[in-house]
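Worked example 3. Consider a protein that binds iron/sulfur cluster.
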Amino acid sequence: MPLQQALQQEAERLHKKLVNVGYNEGYCKIIAPLTLKIEQLKKEKNAVVLAHSYQTPDIVYSVADFIGDSYQLSIAAQKTDAEVIVFSGVRFMAETAKILNPSKTVLLPAPGAGCSLADAITGEDVRALKKKYPGKPVVSYVNTTAEVKAESDSCCTSSNALKIVESFPGDELIFLPDKFMMQNLQEQTSKKLIGWDGTCIVHEDFSADKIDWFRKQHKGVKVLSHSECPPSVTHASDYVGGTNGMIDYVEKTEAPSFMIVTECGLADRMRVEHPEKAFIGMCSLCPYMKMNTLPMIEQVLRDPKEGQIILVDEDVRVKAEKALMKMFEISNAS
Ligand code: SF4
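Given these inputs, the predicted complex is written out as structure tokens:
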């Protein structure tokens, strides 16, 4: 196909997907050469792009091979036959992909894409907690570094946290690092949870007052909040869970409108995938998640730099993999 025709077709494909989230024809024409180039590099390098739902729609709907939350993407990373995994997300997610795929090259386009939760606790902190509470199992949220996972008995996600916590014997365990997720979970389990003072900079800022205000303006609105939000917010919500659970809820629920209380990328994803439903504010941008861009994805595929190539010490990796596999095992048990 002549180049001009291929570019025109690509721009039309992108515009069709992205028009509901405010991307105009002109922008789609500008990014079309880049998305075609990325597709070509993916073939040449035998690479896949995994994109978290919080990534910008121009990444999610142009070059991503898999879109999902951290749990879904870790499963996709486990199953892929590709030799190279480009993780359009944040560092702990790319590290998780590397832990599960030691023989593959895992690339993070924006090397500075961290996470306030993952940065809240170190392996040394977990070792100190284990000394303070000897014999107590440690469950860590996947939003942690490889070193913290390596010190844990199991990982968990927002969707399987309760099941994982309940699966351990005894009536007390260490749950880290998200204090709000721990508080929300504490309301659902009789086990005593020993927490940590970590928070997500996006979810800690939402407030119940704003939800009340929106409820007055939009009669019948269904409010969905992430379990990383403070309990005052989750108590004011109709549904509390992770990103995948929110998508499910929206698909199965009839309502005049929905308010998605999490990172804005998820509401954008729902606007694209459910143009027949109405979504109202409030969401907030994660500065780390939004560091990845299409030009960075093209560059990292073509010529990855130090810092973009994910490396995990083998001793740490083996222990961290054990904690992840424990999560898969418990999560898949009926
Ligand atoms: S949204 Fe919060 S938990 Fe997710 S990457 Fe950003 S800071 Fe971390």
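Take a moment to read the result before moving on. Residues 90, 115-117, 143, 200-202, 263, 286, 288-289 surround iron/sulfur cluster (CB under 6 Å). Residues 21 and 275 are 10 Å apart (CA to CA).
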